[in-house]
Design a protein that fits this description.
single chain, 491 residues, alpha/beta, eight-stranded parallel beta sheet, 35% helix
């Protein structure tokens, strides 16, 4: 190692080679949280961004008892019962867990396979390419690795659009993946789009799934349906059985007025993407009290038609949108990047509108997009009033983001830190329903080496089943086993 100068030693104030000392979230406290049996947790002295206008933003404490936030405010130590575990958050921003309102978790093994593809090629790669070769074990591993990645990045709730539910067993495996990860999740059960699966059989399986895997409605994982193209048969089943439906929404959907006219469009609907919708459809969605989420990177990357997601259309309709990552086939799942990307592209478009004389064009604020990723996501998940803010009585889904890391140090503004500087690597601690899922920068309760190894084996098996082998320089991560060039299908 090259020796540092004396001047460096003077400004660092520490011996060369030494690192930052403890950050208030030591191993002993983490071990105590993992053991359980304590009466409460006090997250103390953090910079709190509550996302609740009634609570506001403050430097203070969050008191958790069981799975519930019981108080948010300054100096709550006197309210904490004896034996409370104290988490020192003086070097952190404390905020509600982020919510990914739309992700296809079963694709976890396909991470990074295709850095530059359009929608057609994505469908070829996933649904007609690897999807048919997925066993229930593959679905489980894909879902588990995606859910763990979400937790690692400060996402405490996901709506898993599980549209590779080829059998009842595949569906159970996806649910097990969410539950084993320890994330709050919505399993949106769906068959591969445009696949010709029998709708009646799918709905019978969904009923069996509900009876078998969801005997109680108050667990961390809940059930709904997911469709790629709206069908009155599916929406009627959902309405009659009190199930939500998530739909891949865009200009390809032309029958929304007919479905609404049949009384099938209700508040129990979530719409992904929502690109290039006519004003009529926005009005129908808003009138029904349904929810929408925006894919800030996915829409542009896969060429769905709008490089700026339809956030203005949603807001004009009176809707608070959620945000979503969609998938990891081409880019990393990071909700902080989604927030930053949305602010940047929207500011660019708004500036053009303002230069052209549009006095009504307004920039999104950091506060706006953070509400999308929390309260908006909670509404999409059917969990409004349960999660999405730091409010007494809400579930204790809480994350701590370090402010002293190299990239966040010196940033005094909490919103600037979260929306302009932070990334998933700054997420220090994650609680889901009051249970610690990440502590001092590391996920808890999982042997990650084994999980990643099993997912890698699953990926290799899927490639072998298709007659492919891994190639780090191929456009889609693999080439045929009998030659060194991508096949026509993958080119």
């Amino acid at each position: 190692m090259e020796m540092k100068s004396e001047r460096y030693a003077l400004i660092s104030g520490t011996a060369v080679g030494s690192g930052r000392t403890g950050n208030g979230r030591d191993e002993a406290t983490g071990a105590r949280l993992a053991e359980g049996g304590y009466p409460a947790v006090l997250v103390r002295g953090g910079t709190i961004v509550s996302v609740d206008d009634a609570v506001g933003n403050l430097v203070g404490d969050v008191l958790i008892e069981g799975d519930v936030i019981v108080a948010v405010g300054p100096d709550l130590a006197a309210r904490a019962p004896a034996g409370t575990v104290v988490v020192d958050a003086a070097d952190c921003i404390v905020l509600p867990g982020l919510i990914d309102a739309h992700v296809h978790a079963w694709e976890g093994q396909l991470r990074g396979m295709a850095p530059a593809i359009d929608l057609t090629t994505y469908m070829d790669l996933t649904h007609t390419g690897y999807g048919p070769y997925y066993t229930p074990d593959d679905v489980y591993l894909g879902t588990l690795i995606t859910a763990l990645l979400a937790l690692d990045g400060g996402v405490t709730t996901v709506i898993d659009n599980s549209h590779n539910s080829r059998t009842f067993e595949h569906s159970v495996a996806a649910i097990d993946g969410l539950r084993d990860a320890g994330i709050r999740g919505v399993h949106a059960n769906g068959v591969p789009p445009f696949s010709g699966f029998d709708t009646q059989q799918w709905l019978r399986d969904a009923g069996k799934l509900r009876a078998t895997c969801f005997p109680s409605p108050d667990g961390l994982v809940t059930l709904r349906l997911m469709d790629a193209v709206p069908e009155s048969e599916v929406w009627r089943y959902a309405r009659d059985n009190d199930l939500w439906v998530t739909t891949e929404m865009g200009s390809h959907v032309t029958n929304l007025p007919e479905l609404a006219g049949e009384g099938l469009l209700t508040a129990h609907h979530t719409f992904n993407h929502c690109v290039n919708l006519p004003d009529r459809d926005w009005q129908l969605i808003a009138d029904a009290g349904a929810t929408v989420n925006l894919c800030t990177r996915s829409d542009a990357h896969f060429g769905l038609g709008q490089y700026v997601p339809p956030v203005d259309e949603a807001l004009r309709s009176g809707l608070l949108p959620g945000l979503s990552t969609d998938n990891e086939v081409s880019y990393s799942s990071d909700m902080f990047i989604e927030l930053q990307h949305l602010v940047a592209v929207h500011r660019g478009r708004t500036a053009v509108q303002q230069f052209a004389g549009d006095a009504d064009a307004k920039h999104l604020s950091p506060e706006d997009v953070l509400r999308f990723a929390t309260l908006g996501g909670a509404a999409n998940a059917g969990l409004a009033g349960t999660t999405g803010s730091l409010t007494a009585g809400m579930q204790a889904d809480i994350i701590l983001v370090r402010t002293g890391d190299t990239n966040t140090a010196l940033v005094d503004n909490a919103y600037a830190a979260l929306i302009g500087f932070a990334n998933r690597g700054n997420v220090d601690t994650v609680f889901v329903a009051g249970e610690v899922r990440k502590w001092a920068g590391r996920l808890t309760g999982h042997n990650l080496e084994q999980v990643i190894g099993a997912a890698a084996q699953s990926r290799a098996r899927l490639m072998t089943a298709r007659g492919l082998r891994s190639d780090p320089f191929a456009p889609h991560g693999a080439v045929p086993t009998d030659q060194g060039q991508p096949s026509e299908e993958l080119s």
